[in-house]
TrEMBL record:
<dbReference type="InterPro" id="IPR050710">
    <property type="entry name" value="Band7/mec-2_domain"/>
</dbReference>
<dbReference type="InterPro" id="IPR001107">
    <property type="entry name" value="Band_7"/>
</dbReference>
<protein>
    <submittedName>
        <fullName>SPFH domain-containing protein</fullName>
    </submittedName>
</protein>
<keyword id="KW-0472">Membrane</keyword>
<feature type="domain" description="Band 7">
    <location>
        <begin position="19"/>
        <end position="180"/>
    </location>
</feature>
<dbReference type="InterPro" id="IPR036013">
    <property type="entry name" value="Band_7/SPFH_dom_sf"/>
</dbReference>
<feature type="transmembrane region" description="Helical">
    <location>
        <begin position="6"/>
        <end position="24"/>
    </location>
</feature>
<dbReference type="GO" id="GO:0016020">
    <property type="term" value="C:membrane"/>
</dbReference>
<dbReference type="Pfam" id="PF01145">
    <property type="entry name" value="Band_7"/>
</dbReference>
<keyword id="KW-1133">Transmembrane helix</keyword>
<keyword id="KW-0812">Transmembrane</keyword>
């Protein structure tokens, strides 16, 4: 009988010891209540409680947590949007924060969601659709500041708030894509037109420069020919005492004969008609006459 009682008490003692152990994982905190009243916060590691009298009322996660809140709202230009906001937060590790986060808020998740709904629906209707995309960081910051102001006294610390998705109605998305496509096509056409314009201008400039150089070359060539004729006439008038008129006619006849021979070699059907001295001869004659007058004046 005594042995039986010993066994019973040993088993009860083991059970009592087993139920008195409190093991807490890393980045967690357990709330201990004694007869329904807050007694203590147990942190990571092993500790003990009085079985039956002390109870684990709850476990608080001290890691950074993320809550995603989808919000449906409308913009200033009457576009319905679905905006997903990601809230990254944690419970502060001090005693008061752990205690307040557990006892003061009945449902912290629901209260965070309610505030996000209210903040987003207050900001987005002030903006047109394009502005919502441009100002999503401002929307996130507004939500973050409001949440910190609201929840900091209850032990919560809002680390980051992100607008992770903006989804307009499908018809609006299709319309936006069509507008962007037309913009790209117009820009491509403008770029092509500008490129074609540059090519035309460059081609015109090149042709202008080519004609200019060609004209200068022809002018120099003609001047060289005239200089050669002038020299030939001078040589005749000085070396043989031939009159300028006779010397000019002789040079022109020689040029005509040379031209006739050259043209005949190239085309057997050419008929050459001698027009007389012609304009070239008149120019050469005038140049020689002017030179002769200058020489007389110098003498």
């Amino acid at each position: 009988m005594e042995n039986f009682l010993i066994i019973i008490f040993s088993v009860l003692g083991f059970i009592f010891l087993l139920f008195s152990i409190v093991i807490v994982n890393q980045k967690q905190a357990k709330i201990i209540q004694r007869l329904g009243k807050f007694q203590s916060v147990r942190r990571a590691g092993i500790s003990f409680r009085i079985p039956i009298i002390d109870q684990v009322a709850g476990v608080q996660n001290l890691q950074i947590q993320e809550l995603r809140v989808p919000v449906e709202t409308i913009t200033q230009d009457k576009v319905t949007l679905k905006i997903e906001v990601a809230i990254q937060y944690l419970i502060k590790a001090d005693l008061d924060s752990i205690k307040n986060s557990f006892y003061e808020l009945a449902d912290s998740t629901a209260q965070i969601e309610s505030f996000v709904f209210d903040a987003v629906r207050a900001e987005v209707p002030k903006m047109e659709l394009d502005m919502v995309y441009e100002n999503k960081d401002n929307i996130a910051n507004t939500v973050m500041e409001g949440l910190n102001s609201l929840l900091s006294n209850y032990g919560f610390d809002i680390k980051k708030t992100l607008v992770v998705d903006i989804l307009p109605d499908a018809k609006v998305v299709d319309a936006m894509n069509a507008i962007n496509e037309q913009k790209r096509l117009r820009q491509a056409a403008e770029e092509k037109g500008e490129a074609d314009k540059i090519l035309i201008i460059k081609a015109a400039e090149a042709e202008k420069e080519s004609k200019k150089l060609h004209g200068e070359g022809v002018a120099l060539q003609q001047m060289a020919v005239l200089k050669g004729r002038e020299k030939a006439i001078k040589d005749l008038t000085v070396g043989t005492n031939m009159a300028i008129k006779d010397a000019t006619e002789l040079v022109i006849k020689l040029i005509d004969q040379e031209t006739l021979i050259s043209m005949g070699d190239k085309n057997k059907n050419v008929i050459f008609m001698n027009p007389g001295i012609g304009v070239g001869g008149k120019i050469v004659e005038g140049m020689v006459a002017a030179e002769t007058i200058n020489q007389h004046q110098q003498n």
